[in-house]
Amino acid sequence: MAEHAFLKRLTQSRKQGDxxxxxxTIKDIAKLAGVTIASVSRALNNEPGVSDAVRAKxxxxxxxxxxxxxxxxxxxxxxxxxxxxxxxxxxxxxxxQHLCDEFQKQGEERDASLLVSFAKPETALAVLREHxxxxxxxxxxxxxxxxxxxxxxxxxxxxEILVMGGGKLESAHRIxxxxxxxxxxxxxxxxxxxxxxxxxxxxxxxxxxxGFTLGLLEYRLEFDQRNMISSPLVGELPEDRLLDILGSExxxxxxxxxxxxxxxxxxxxxxxRRLNLRIPEHFSLIVYDNIPDMEVIYDVPLTTVGPNxxxxxxxxxxxxxxxxxxxxSRTWKEVTVESELHVRSSTxxxxxxIPS
Length: 356
Known about the structure:
Blueprint lengths: L1 H15 L9 H8 L3 H8 L7 H13 L6 H9 L1 E8 L6 H15 L3 E5 L3 H10 L2 E7 L8 H9 L3 E5 L8 E5 L1 H14 L5 E4 L5 H12 L9 E2 L9 H8 L9 E4 L5 H10 L9 E7 L12 E6 H13 L12 E4 L1 E4 L14
Parallel strand pairs: 1-2, 1-3, 3-4, 4-5, 5-11, 6-7, 6-8, 8-9, 9-10
Antiparallel strand pairs: 10-12
């Protein structure tokens, strides 16, 4: 019954629509057939991976809907689309906006454009494949592992996938970010300025926390669990705890804070302003993510640590240009981009101390 109702709505929309062409996609066919987009693509392109019964059902539905493939896209496939696909399975802070801008900028220098998807990796890759995109960047998060559906779609993908920022994938380029050393270098900088009580704001189960802990041990700094402010959602912080720590007596308050993502910065600064505190007079601050916003988002330019966005994108372009021929002879590159510390006005020595 649901299939008949869906067909009826499609038919009515064709009669009432302004376009002379039926707006039917393989997603519509997949919904009616009760299969994945990848299965529809295999069936319509006469590729293996679906049973004869499923293939026949998909073809019958496509004929009933008068499905017409995008011939312009087919022609693009013959020439190989000079477009970069970008898949974000997570979006945190404004870092990703600057990363997209940099891909667009460097892509234009190579006569390439950018197509971005925030869908699940398996869905996004299937759609990018439909558009005959040969180069795909995937930013999946540090704890990501490919799903079975993603691997099925990847089997059909003939281009090059580059995993950036975290996670691993066979037969794909990989650009790793040394987050552990980034936060370690932030602790080192603060220790050299004389700070002993340093608070950490961010996730408490990733490489950044490891770097923070190593820094405390290396420089024999105080560890206080009360100065660990965590939240599973970037962009949100436990306001009561934050106000309690920031509002404590100067002799008890941390003399410096390290924020593990610019996504946590807004709620942190909101609490700072609420308590009429000043940076770096009351405490120093370092934020992970090297993006231009950090120089203007607050009253004083913020000290930052993290990978250079331009170098991340250049590394990706180099992977593609150096990967060699397609097929089994293709070389899969693995690169680690080191983080950079940019010292600005938000960090300073403790009153009465001489930095080492």
